[in-house]
Amino acid sequence: MFRFANIEWLWIGIGVVVLLSIAFFFYTRYKRRQLKLFGDEELVNLLMPNASRKRPILKFTMTMIALLLLFIAAARPQFGTSERTEKRNGIEAIVALDISNSMLAEDVAPNRLERAKQMMSKLMDNMVNDKVGLVVFAGDAFIQLPITCDYVSAKMFLNTITPDLIKTQGTAIGQAIRTSARCFSSEGEASRVIILITDGENHEDDAVAAATQAKEAGIQVMVVGIGKPEGSPIPMPGTTNFRKDRNGNVVVSKLNESMCREIAQAGGGIYVHCDNTNTAMKAIQREIDKLATQEFETQVYTEYNEQFQSFAIFALVLLVIEFFIFNRKNKALTRLDIFGEKK
User: Fold this and answer.
1) Engineering a disulfide at 94: which of 66, 133, 138, 209 sits with its beta carbon 3.0 to 4.6 angstroms away?
2) Is the pLDDT of residue 336 over 70?
3) 142 near 136, Cβ under 8 Å?
């Protein structure tokens, strides 16, 4: 497969070459008209025996070709992207991330949501052959990224997550678990795990029952509780104010550790508390390392191979050759008649 990574440079190059060619045409035409003002064309040619009409055109043509080749190199022509099937050993993990407004509380730095994203980003850095997917939830839950081995894309999607992704506020942990359970692709012996990151303020459904169903389906549910039990007010983005209830009281969001432990116990996984250290990430990593792995097939795409070097080298060669071609005839080379200028 062939493509240009920065194709805009190709169009710019074509435009520049066309404009310069038009300018050169009119300039050459103008010079010929000026020479005719001196007198008869044949007589003028006799007075300038070393003058050449073909050489300037050849030099200009070579310069334009070299310039176009340099623009092509700048456009980064690429060949490649062969597809192959690889066999890997790993687990399948779905990260279910709470993005309700309560995750904006700042009892961990910089806030609960950003701390959770930082932790998962570091965890993905340690993944090699595992598959990972991403589910976000608040009052509703949806799949942000289907299960994949592409950790770069996973981290990119992770970084773009904000509470604005879901308009329905709340914390439907049970729905998040059920949505996550539908994401797994393996039907063999590979370990499947849901990493649930939340402050445990479940207001919508029976999360414990959902975790029990996941366990019965062979899916382990690990829970990362983020925040502090004593709680913290929830900032309102873009202001210095905090969220208030209907009575005008500041809402304090507290980590519900008892709920988090119940969900983890029902799901056959562990519960860890996430604070400003890497303790939670290391605990999850240790647990993942213990899980059984299965060989699975995945499609792998090779990266594009850069081919700009050939165009740049060819342009350089043309420019060197053009430099050694003089606008006037060279007496030492006249006998060779390279340019067909003998009469």
Assistant:
1) 133
2) no
3) yes
